[in-house]
């Protein structure tokens, strides 16, 4: 037992949630409303949201950059774990989804802790560099359009501090990364960034089967 990661049956996944998840009511309400949306598959799963919050607490992170807001579920989890004076900058291109995010952030009392920027993420990240935010962020969480991942990763390497953490979500893409017949743009982009991070000697990294695959990359230099 224990030689490889478990495959989770529905029953085992339910057990995991029952014995792990401590989801605040407002966070649960946001998740449930998002689940009724057509694009609900884009939402961070609850156990991963809670894990992100724990990472924020573990690192005592005060400056977080989120690339991809959607309805604000991941940002809400992280904001609730921020220490005094902590701030999240969240980037997205869709104002419609972000209206829901703002509503729930307000309900949770964390709206002032989250700075939402509506613009293409690569433009926003370059603007942050122009604003002297290089080597600034403790955590950068990338969960946006997959074709942009390689660009976002390279920009994140400039924005995150030495010893800071870059997280890339959906890096297993439902298992499609091993399907050689799937040459779609998204899966090819994910394969490319996975290879890039794995070979990047600037980071200490690990790709973990959390949610749809989550890569941890700590900037070393």
UniProtKB/TrEMBL annotation:
Positions in coiled-coil regions: none
Pfam families: Methyltransf_3
Protein name stated in the entry: SAM-dependent methyltransferase
High-level lineage: Bacteria, Bacillati, Bacillota, Bacilli, Bacillales
Organism: Saccharibacillus brassicae
Gene3D superfamilies named in the record: Vaccinia Virus protein VP39 (3.40.50.150)
GO biological process terms, semicolon-separated: methylation
UniProt GO MF annotations: O-methyltransferase activity; S-adenosylmethionine-dependent methyltransferase activity
Keyword annotations of the record: Methyltransferase, S-adenosyl-L-methionine, Transferase
């Amino acid at each position: 037992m224990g030689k490889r990661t478990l495959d989770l049956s529905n029953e085992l996944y339910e057990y995991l949630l029952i014995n792990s998840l401590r989801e605040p009511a407002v966070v649960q309400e946001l998740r449930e409303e998002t689940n009724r949306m057509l694009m609900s598959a884009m939402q961070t799963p609850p156990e991963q949201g809670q894990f992100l919050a724990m990472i924020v607490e573990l690192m005592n992170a005060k400056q977080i950059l989120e690339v991809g807001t959607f309805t604000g579920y991941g940002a809400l989890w992280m904001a609730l774990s921020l220490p005094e004076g902590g701030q999240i900058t969240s980037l997205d291109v869709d104002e419609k989804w972000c209206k829901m995010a703002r509503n729930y952030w307000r309900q949770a009392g964390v709206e002032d802790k989250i700075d939402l920027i509506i613009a293409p993420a690569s433009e926003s990240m370059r603007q942050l560099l122009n604003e002297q935010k290089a080597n600034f962020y403790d955590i950068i969480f990338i969960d946006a359009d997959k074709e942009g991942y390689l660009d976002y990763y390279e920009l994140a390497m400039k924005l995150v501090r030495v010893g800071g953490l870059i997280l890339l979500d959906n890096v297993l893409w439902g298992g499609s990364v091993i399907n050689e017949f799937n040459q779609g743009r998204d899966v090819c982009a994910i394969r490319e960034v996975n290879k890039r991070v794995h070979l990047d000697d600037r980071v200490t990294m690990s790709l973990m089967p959390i949610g749809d695959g989550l890569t941890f990359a700590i900037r070393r230099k």
